[in-house]
Amino acid sequence: NLDVYIVHVDHAQSDDLETFYDSFLPTNTNLAAASTNRTTDHPRILYRYRHVISGFAAKLSEADVEAMRQMKGFVSARPERMMPLHTTHSPNFLGLNQNTGLWKNSNYGKGVIIGLVDIGVEPSHPSFADAGMPPPPAKWKGECKFRAGKGACNKKLIGARFLIDELSPLTDGHGTHTASTAAGNFVGGAGFFGNANGTAAGVAPLAHV
């Protein structure tokens, strides 16, 4: 039962980072590096950090992590987590205020349909909730082609198609970020580890996607 952990260590404990990183891994799976090649990787290490922080990402068990905690130079081990992208400050950066001025006078994009060509979208993302959204305009003739049980369109996310028919437009990545930046609905309590706290919203939060 191995999970991916981001392990942070104190690089001051060693001048040879590669050997130092390997020393934290279970000895029964260590690989001996070739005498002329110090780039041979430990089979569990997924990535070695050499800039900004010292550490590595590796597949570890809970017992492995507990053993690491007793070792000199260990700082922390955090399990890998998927962090959704939140856009909280883009409207303010553009000088848009929620209850006054141009943003309010534009009716927040109500009635507009924004189309994006990107890698796909994650329909369960809170930016695509349809609270406060009107129905799609009567002229809308698009389709929603998520696979059964894998997502659904609503009054905010009114259509999704993939350019290759047998593939699904369901994915959580760049398309989710750009679509929510353009037209994400208001999402309260957004932030990133206590930074940029506020209400997330796209530039046209009442537009359809």
Automatic annotation (TrEMBL):
Sorted UniProt keywords: Hydrolase, Protease, Serine protease, Signal
Molecular function terms from GO: serine-type endopeptidase activity
An annotated GO BP: proteolysis
Domain Peptidase S8/S53: 109-204
Protein's UniProt keywords contain Kinase: no
Superkingdom of the organism of origin: Eukaryota
Gene3D superfamilies (UniProt xref): Peptidase S8 propeptide/proteinase inhibitor I9, Peptidase S8/S53 domain
Domain annotation Inhibitor I9: ranges: 4-86
Family: Belongs to the peptidase S8 family.
Protein name (record): Inhibitor I9 domain-containing protein
